[in-house]
Write a structure and sequence with these properties.
The complex is a heterodimer of chains A (242) and B (121). Chain A has 242 residues and is mostly helical. Chain A has helices at 6-14, 17-37, 46-61, 65-77, 79-85, 87-92, 94-99, 101-125, 130-136, 143-153, 157-181, 187-209, 211-241. Chain B has six helices and no strands. Classes of the chains: A mainly alpha (242), B mainly alpha (121). At the A-B interface, helix 2, helix 3, helix 4, helix 5 and helix 6 of A face helix 1, helix 2, helix 3, helix 4 and helix 6 of B.
Amino acid sequence: MIAPRIADIWVYLAATPLLGLTITLLAYQAAYWIYARARFNPLLNPVALAIVVLVTALALTGTPYQTYFDGAQFVHFLLGPATVALAVPLYAQLDKLRALAMPLAGALLAGSLTAILSVLAFGWLLGASETTLLSLAPKSVTTPIAMGIAEKIGGIPSLTAVLVILTGISGAVMAKGVLDALHIKDHGVRGFAVGIAAHGIGTARAFQVSEQAGAFAGLGMGLNGLATAVLAPLLMAAFRWM
Amino acid sequence: MLGALTVLLLYQLIGEVLVQLLALPLPGPVVGMLLLLLSLWMKGGMADRLRDTANGLLQHLSLLFVPAGVGVMVHFARVSGEWLPILFALLASTALAIAVSALTMQALIRLRGAHGGKDHQ
């Protein structure tokens, strides 16, 4: 029998989910190793590093995104059960959450409106196209909710998914600096603010700081998902009317 | 671990079904999370059995965003054509949203004179 050539092996591997899945885990672990070696410097966010590595690898090998995603979707799928799992740390903080109902509600409303309106204002001032603006509006909420909102208000859902991730990375990178500059020390307040503005990636970053920050971030992410799903379509309708 | 994962998937499934049936504007997993929180509230013992698996998943939460993020390559033309407004609007708006949320929450806690504003480091 003739030994299969490299190209044949490549064709075989490209058709199975194994490759996409494995390179995602490898890229992330390498990125996380660098992040840990840099003493968790927020600028070396592991999500951003892993994405850069993977996009470069796919571009160099001429692999289409869809082929990669066929494998990587198994990782993507776990976002669902992980979102459900947020109920567990939330439950551990339940007494604290109930005692803070009013401040949480106020911060949610202010944060959610700021996230939507300011991105529209800055984008519009700098000349972003209308489609880009509509895709940007739900940028602070978790991917599945944001994509649903983008579709509803006339943005491009898959572009929104990317902008949401860029927002999460920016939030995870800037959170410490912004909150330290404002002298905000309470881990509950810090976590909640990051969850509102930077959803799951902010929440992942908050969990690295403390369980309390992580639980409040998870709550902020969930609640801002609800708030933005209601507010964004209403605000867009109001803008059109004006 | 297997039992806990089954519970999480079951709540996600119930969430997805409810969203479809009631035409809710939310994703299924978020509804599943709220239902699980309600169940834990009624029967706290469940939390002990879920804790290890939940923490395991949440510890690597950032990994789960990587596949969707790689999708940036599909929108490369639009993102690079409008990189300045996109980048500036994202960064400024995200920093502003963090600041406004945190300052509002802190001000409301102080206004009420509650004890929730202590440092828990």
